[in-house]
């Protein structure tokens, strides 16, 4: 079966198969998805598909199996969620972390990258140099300057997001 014949077969069989799978799944979008996936698999496995006496039955079987697999996967996920429901409220970052992120954003990109890679990702100075393509000495200078700038910026706050004069940053 060449592409043109397959396209004609697709045009004739897709609506019929989608209707049958819709009756099985109860979801028109899901039915279209599994039938479409079955046609893709039919094209990828043309020899098996064409060797079968009834190509439409082959596609229907594949689509039904896909629908059942998706249903099982969704059911397993639902069981997991019911067993261990997600927290209703996930606490946001604390004031110290918020202040640190705000201070990091004010650094030049090269300094920020060096600080994050070295202190937050736990890379050695040599690894940071390799990752950024900068010489080791340059990385050390960026770290030193970045830490000094962070100390200055973080020293401007009392740790609660307010400046010493009481105004919120």
Describe the structure.
With 169 residues, this protein is mainly alpha-helical. The chain has 2 domains: 3-83, Rna Polymerase Sigma Factor, Chain: A (Orthogonal Bundle), CATH 1.10.1740; 95-155, Winged helix-like DNA-binding domain superfamily/Winged helix DNA-binding domain (Arc Repressor Mutant, subunit A, Orthogonal Bundle), CATH 1.10.10. 75% of the residues lie in helices and 0% in strands. The chain has 8 helices and no strands. The longest helix has 29 residues, at 55-83. The chain is elongated and about 75 Å long. Residues 158-163 and 165-169 have low confidence and may be disordered.
Question: What's a concise summary of this model?
Answer:
The protein has 169 residues and is mainly alpha-helical.
